[in-house]
Write a structure and sequence with these properties.
The complex is a heterodimer of chains A (382) and B (135). Helix content of chain A is 34%, strand content 20%. Chain A has 382 residues and is α/β, with parallel strands linked by helices. A 10-stranded mixed β-sheet of chain A has the order 3-2-4-7-1-8-12-11-9-10, sandwiched between helices. A two-stranded antiparallel ribbon of chain A has the order 5-6. In chain A, helix 5 (158-172) packs across helix 9 (285-294) and helix 8 (252-268) packs across helix 9 (285-294). The longest helix of chain A is centred in the last third of the chain and has 17 residues, at 252-268. The chains are: A alpha/beta (382), B mainly beta (135). At the A-B interface, helix 4 and strand 5 of A face strand 6, strand 7 and strand 8 of B.
């Protein structure tokens, strides 16, 4: 018999922090990582030696980045583990940190994502399997093809796709951690450089770097370290999967995303209607529309209507990507999943300024990684 | 002249079309493309359970777009790519040898050899073009 996170010891996020996402630069990854970590420690009201284990999500920093970075804040002898799982590296680092605390192995664990724009070498290029088209493993192309099919079958328009970019760029405009902080008009998004099919540059995630950190703790740690119970956000589910075998034309990432969302709702004991805020993998605008449907936030084929009606706006049925998402907050890979958690935690605490969703209580961070793999966490302000 | 990807296709006897190299699994009976040395992607059977099967290179066009940007190293835009059904239920992304304006959904395609330059070498690549009008 297996158990879920909710069957184990309660786990809470007590501190979050970020280094702003930015275009590739000379900034050392150590500076970015420690900036995020120090912000998370300050947010938690905790000193670094209290952390018993660190889970480091990164794709481009090279082997053993964790100790190289963390020794500059203290060689306390804590356990250090590095995790690479493409876009979902940070999310999986967070899952491991939660599992350690929930299992009773630790009372205080750190999940930290940090990345430089690396060589982007993918294992699929070493598979030794040729393809008829050299772009067949590039998600952007798969999604651009799907846009055309949905345009014909469901009435999806180029304006719908641009609306995702418009919404998320404008959300990011007031997010001090976002790579893009410039309000955009729908026309600017629609008329930016075409990349593939109907997808334009301002509907696609940029290249970047940055860092994000989250500290998770047990109830014992909250009591023993004198932490502020009122700012702790409970992690109520942690669910991962990968795409199933299929021969239909729906991208495997959508299937994986749907399966993981449904399982994580069951584990958290919620329905999608209870979600106040969701951060999801909008590397390309069409993904947000498809995941909105896959997550059950609207009916199949209704994602673009949900968007058009403003139901994914900050004050809509469910606020989606209030951070600006991958399109505008950015997507440095290692940190991305933890950056989502940073946004959700601040929303559920009511600390998100003019992007604040009123009375936000339950949120989900949902991430996709190459392969495809999927992972979701549900959070609740108790 | 060398084929760009000889593991995926070979020249038809008349030299004007390409035959695709697929695999049929002896355990589940499913067809897969391309031939891989690791096992059946449908049921996981060991690679020795799969036998090679030649496809005519005829296909049905299901979707297509133009790639305008440099989406990956080595890709020279603009290029037209599409999804094509190579055999019932077997859909692969393919490179099309004509502009979007000459394509229509449901159109029958044929894999044909096209000469490309790779450094100092000329290679035979696979492109899919409308079958109608070809003799």
């Amino acid at each position: 018999m297996t158990v879920t996170l909710k069957d184990l010891r309660p786990v809470h996020v007590i501190g979050v922090g970020m280094h702003r996402y930015q275009f590739p630069s000379d900034t050392p990854y150590i500076h970015m990582g420690l900036t995020a970590l120090r912000a998370a420690l300050a947010d938690a009201g905790m000193e670094f030696p209290a952390i018993q284990a660190a889970h480091v999500g990164t794709t481009g920093c090279g082997m053993a980045a964790g100790r190289v970075m963390l020794r500059h804040i203290g060689s306390t002898g804590l356990a250090v583990q590095q995790i690479e799982n493409a876009s979902a590296s940070g999310s999986f680092a967070f899952a491991n940190a939660c599992l350690e605390v929930a299992s009773g192995l630790r009372d205080v664990a750190l999940a930290i994502g940090v990345d430089k724009y690396g060589d982007q070498k993918r294992a699929v290029t070493k598979e030794g399997v040729n393809r008829l088209s050299d772009t067949s493993t590039i998600p952007l192309v798969k999604y651009a093809l799907m846009c055309r099919t949905l345009a014909r079958e469901k009435g999806l328009t180029a304006e719908d796709l641009a609306t995702v970019g418009w919404k998320n760029h404008n959300n990011a405009a007031t997010n001090p951690y976002a790579q893009f902080q410039k309000p955009r008009t729908l026309e600017q998004v629609l008329n930016s450089t075409r990349v593939a099919g109907d997808l334009t540059a301002l509907q696609c995630t940029p290249r970047g770097e940055g860092a994000a950190a989250a500290i998770v703790v047990s109830e014992d740690a909250i009591r023993d370290l004198g932490l502020d119970r009122g700012r702790a956000i409970r992690v109520v589910s942690s669910t991962a999967g990968s795409e199933p075998l299929s021969r239909d034309r729906e991208p495997g990432s959508i299937k994986a995303a749907r399966n993981v969302a449904l399982r994580t709702y069951a584990e958290a004991g919620i329905t999608p209607r209870e979600l106040d805020v969701v951060e999801l993998h909008d590397a390309f605008s069409i993904e947000e529309i498809l995941y909105t449907e896959a997550f059950g936030l609207c009916g199949p084929g209704e994602g673009h209507h949900f968007l058009r009606e403003g139901r994914s706006a900050v004050d809509g049925d469910c606020a989606i990507n209030t951070s600006g998402g991958l399109i505008a907050q950015g997507h440095p890979l290692g940190p991305t999943g933890i950056g989502q958690i940073h946004e959700i935690v601040r929303q559920l605490r009511g600390e998100n300024g003019n992007r604040q969703r009123k009375n936000a209580r339950i949120g989900m961070a949902h991430m996709i990684g190459l392969g495809s793999v999927a992972i979701a966490h549900v959070f609740r302000n108790d | 002249m060398q084929l760009e990807k000889p593991d995926l296709y070979g020249l038809a006897p008349d030299g004007r079309a390409l035959r695709l190299r697929a695999a049929r699994c002896g355990d589940c009976g499913e067809l897969s493309f391309p031939v891989v040395n690791y096992g059946c992607p449908q049921c996981g059977a060991a690679p020795e359970r799969c036998t090679e099967e030649s496809l005519s290179g005829a296909a049905t066009l299901l979707e297509f777009i133009t790639i305008h940007g440099q989406v990956a190293p080595g890709i020279a835009p603009p290029i037209v790519v599409g999804e094509a059904e190579l055999a019932p239920g077997l859909v692969e992304e393919v490179v099309l040898g004509v502009p979007e304006e000459e394509l229509a959904l449901g159109m029958r395609l044929q894999a044909v050899p096209v000469e490309i330059r790779r450094g100092d070498d000329t290679l035979i690549a696979c492109r899919f073009v409308p079958k109608e009008g070809r003799t």
